[in-house]
Structures
1.
Amino acid sequence: IEEVIGDDNNDNQDDLSSWTDAEETSDLIKSYFESLQSSGLVTGVAKKSPLSSTPNNHDKCPHFAYTAMHGVGLPYAIQSFQTFFSNDLQSHFHTVPHQSKPDPTFPTVPFPNPEEKGALDIAMLFAEQEKCDIVIANDPDADRLAIAEKSRVTGEWTVFTGDQIGTMLGHWLWERIGKTCGQPVAMCASTVSSKMLSAIAQTEGFHFEDTLTGFKWIGSRASALQKEHGYRVLLTYEEAIGFCCGDVIFDKDGISALGVMSELAYHVYANEGSSLAQHMQGLYDKYGEFVSNNGYYICNDTSIP
């Protein structure tokens, strides 16, 4: 790294120091959440809550257990939830205490990736103790989002795949925003992701594109579709739990996705009397079943190029 940086090391450090200034960082955060508030992603479903006037109906609303997975996401996750939800529903957001503070040793998880088997175990245990329905997890730098749900009927857990989360987000944003936004709508997903969102696009009449893998490609194509072709891009995603909702930034963003997914879940529970698993099954029933089974191999032999 030092060889790559070379003689410019000191200059780079000087440039970076300005970004660690508390005031500038505060302004950046403020600007981000103002953009999120004005983006149209906040549909108001959880702001104009009928539960306020009917306290007993609070049982319908899901409780959320959030884990930052020893990363930096907590303060921004809280602010995202506040952006999407009314004040009387803030008590439905619970924080997994053992994983709330940044810790580069990641002491409670085998590997700090929400996709990894066992990574959500502590969060799910906390959710059961606090009677939460849904686990929301960011990875340590909070650019990705994982979702798990405990059934109120069977007590069994469903850990949703990135494709399932992307499909639910895409359908929600189309139904709530796309149908009435007054301009052509587009969505994108990496070519290794599920084709279910493409099937929804064909049925509903919005534009969908496959892209190369990685948000370098996904985000640049979304930007081009919006700026050069006049589309309103409502969702781009990759199956590895990376989601970009709207055009606040053309990159994967676990904080805005957290707010949108939580609002979707609120609507499904409070207004439909359903669950996310049942909601996902309803999408399968309407648009067709799509199945993916991803995996990887670990090679510890360093002699293999």
2.
Amino acid sequence: YQGHSCHILYISVTSEQRTKRVLAHLGPVTFCCRQTHSNMQVQAKKCQSGMLQVLQQRTRVPTSFLTYPSHSCSRSSKGCNIACHPKPTAKFICSSLATSTPASAVPAPVPPPAQPASGPLSTSVQAPGINFNTIANTGAAKAAMPEWKSLLGGVLAGAYISFGCFLSLSVGGSIPGIATSNPGLQKLIMAMLFPVNLMMVTLCGAELYTGNTAVVSVAMFEGKAKVSHALRGLFYSFIGNWIGCFGIAAAVAATGLMAANPLPSAVAVAKTSLDPQTAFVRAILCNWLVCLAVWMASSATSLPGKVMGLWPPVVAFFAIGLEHSIANMFIISLGIMLGAKVTFVQLWTSNLLPVTLGNTVAGVLCVALPYALLYGTLGQRLQRPSSA
């Protein structure tokens, strides 16, 4: 159903445990309905039924324990939408057996119906529309962060990305036989190890510029973040990423572990030798995949699901050979520190500038904008004139 939103305000549960589960897992729930004038009451019942179904899936509380208050429906100003609202006296209630419901009046819990073996209904992955709202709220929180938090989170993200690069280069540079006989296998091995960095960013919490370009942009498109706040957060996360990457590169160079490894220097020379147009296009494709990895991880509600969601797109961009600005901060800096014939000016002008621009374009235009049109208020605003 599309159109105006209906909100669950009245929930009755029959045990203290279920009460806690509802409070812990409910979060914001919105379900929308749309219909012509002639069938408003029927559509309101569909809206109510759909809300209860979404709520049951989110909380795993049987629908027999969920109730909805009486509602009123009214025509919109354009006469084609309806909005279901609770009566003014309705308020949020969570009652338990111990405080409000006599034991004799409580129906026995009804177990959820068994799902067919051919296609069980998964509750470990959020639907795309719900995940979009989750990302919009996350983006709003990121944009509202004070500068020092965005900077500190950026430093951590830069360090985490660097650790993944360090691991990948260490192993990749230690298998010269495979590199000579089967370079594709070497790239695949390195790519399989690399995503440990985004896993740390996602699960531990940090401010990675490349992923934030999509997440914060969604909040802007939804009107949940001001453009100035979003740009401020992106700026400080980028500066923090550079500090974290440069610091870890200096630490790795000081360990001596990479002194005999030829990969950092070779990669630094290769990346700064790209022409700007090539680097820009590779950067767009790269961050498209990275933002999809963040998107997929966000849709999962379990640790294995998040890891499985983010791993394949990151493996893909690394194995293909695309350009990620934050990873390049570490790799090229480390190459320079280990003796590559590259300067820090070349690092910024020949690589980071076009790559950062391409990464930004991908996050905003390739990921945030299309999903805002599909699932957000931006798409609804564009649809209204044609449906009037």
3.
Amino acid sequence: MLLASIAKSITAAAAVTTSSLHAHNTRSSNTDNMSSTSGAGGSIICAGLSCLDLQLVGCTQSGSDEAIERYDEAIHCAGGSASMTATTLALLMKEQQQEEVHVITKIGPDFAGNTMLEFYRRAGASTRLVLSDESARTSMAVLPIFQTGKRGCYVNLACNDGFSPDEMLQQVDEYFVNDSLAGPPPARVFLFGYPHLMPKMQGAALKSMLENVRDKLSSDDNKVLIAVDLNGVDGSDTTVARSALIPALSEIDVLHLNEDEAMVLSSSSSSAAANDGDDGSNSLLSSALLSQISSFHEHGCAVVLLSLGSKGAFVSVTPDAKRLQQLSSSECNMAMSQWSAGTQVHVPAFKIEHGGVNTNGAGDALFAGFSLAASSWGSKWKVCPLNAGTFASLVAWQRCDSKTRDGEGMRSADALMDMINEQKLPVILED
């Protein structure tokens, strides 16, 4: 496997250095330097939490806390939201012209940080926006991947704990430092995760950071889509969990979370009203989940992408047409700005026929694929919510397949969209 083989070739003596980057551009010079496009291009920025994962593949699971468990193979990979979304999209977009995938995250000058930089480069993602802090320590995680395909996670968040909004924004400013006279291509989407595991980017601070990102990356000609992925939502204190996210919902165009996270964030004051799905898909969800999705929309979130595990995913579009129109622009209208308000659809998960399953990063892949499709420009990539969700499910399908997850044999983004248009889809996974 392409990425899995990288860790075996890197030793602790690896010397890859990345200088700390400093912001020095104003918004006016930023937008003046943005080149316009009428095609499906535009840069993708994947930001937020990162860690070096050590996957213990093929773990036994006897059920006893003190049992000696076995595993088949130990593999390093770049983990966390910024890493998983960036490597997934970079591998998908390798055949695309004038499309760049950038990573914004914080690492230390150590083996883990150097290894992650190498993973990013091998996948095809740009590392020039990565912040390397000489005084920081890169986060690491140990993930037992059980024989069932499920996983556990043990993590030391390290420098993610100290990653601040000011540091994030200085890296966004660095996007506009470009040798080309035309400047960088416009950014089509900014993906961020996971706010509940990043204490300095929660609540009002998260809202302010996302507002500033939108201001820096958008112009009258091109609007950027802001997408946020959740993980680590602690159910032990629902008030704290809600306060980390709810104030920022008005700045979030796409929110991705799973059923458990949605219920942790639920409020008794949520509206009981929910729009009926076009295809009867609402029968998959409880009234409480539908009520909570409505609450997210009431707080200003444009689209909710709800992971349902083996049942696929549920896409809910705000009933507020004006909220969607905020994403339209004079030069390029992204796909999501054209969606019908109030649409709700279910998309299935797809079966991996040969049985080699690794679900680590499945949610990140679903989120990344959906955001890519929803933010597309031009007729070739103009997609409805159902197609965007199906595309996302196909991206997750490839990422969960142990044979294709690291790039070898992975279909490109264009090839996946062709599968949808031609209705040549894999077998649906039966729950």
4.
Amino acid sequence: VSARGVKCAVAAEYRRGGDNAQAAIDAGLLSAADLNGLNDWTDSGLMLKQWDDSSVQCPPPAGSVNGRDRFSLFNEPPRDAGAAAAATWKAYQARCASELAGYQIVGPAVHNGLDWMRDFYSAFFAACPECQEPASPLYVTYIAFHAYATASDTAGVVGSMVWTHDAACTLQAEPWALGRPVLLTEFGAQLNVQDNVDQWLTAMDTIFDPPASVPSVCIEEAYYFAEHGFGGLAYENEFQPSTTTTADSASRVVGKFRSLCFGPDSGSPPP
């Protein structure tokens, strides 16, 4: 937990590909049993990925994957897909009701701007009033979103991440949000650069230890994006060396995460 009360987490694949999640465990930043510290949905089956496909396999029993008890809905669905995504969730939940028992549900991870996120969630909850009822098996416990800085200068990255804090509070205050906890399930600096990790470290700094210009912190958990570059972009962001992240950069990422998330009031890193 950071000094401003944001729970530090990692968005990375576990036991797959570059395995930055395992690198974080090896560095003592996480434990393998960390309940919700790894966004390892690509391997674990703990996400209903496609907003328009309810036919996928039901999840493993709650708690069977490193003790995790959260199930996530949809990764970056289209802006106009809120109602259709709600229908997909209803159909999937009806088919997989027994397997989903014991899970808390994380709402769709929206992105691409505040109006975009509001439009999607407003339509989603309008089409699924049961998702607002705590007693319903369709109930969504958490609001989720993604945010990346695309500026090449430090001030621009800080500004983007300050906006991210403000956006979290705005979403939480929406009538459909009902004050629910907000999770930033991916964040970072999405830049096509190598040999430059500074903007990623700045993004981490601003989210986990925001400046005084952020009066209220509404992000309950923030997942630093530690995966290998994708879409042709070369990122210096990983917990381990790779074809795009140098050993020095990886060491600085580990050190920054440790210094922000395991301060004197945060306890010690897990063994």
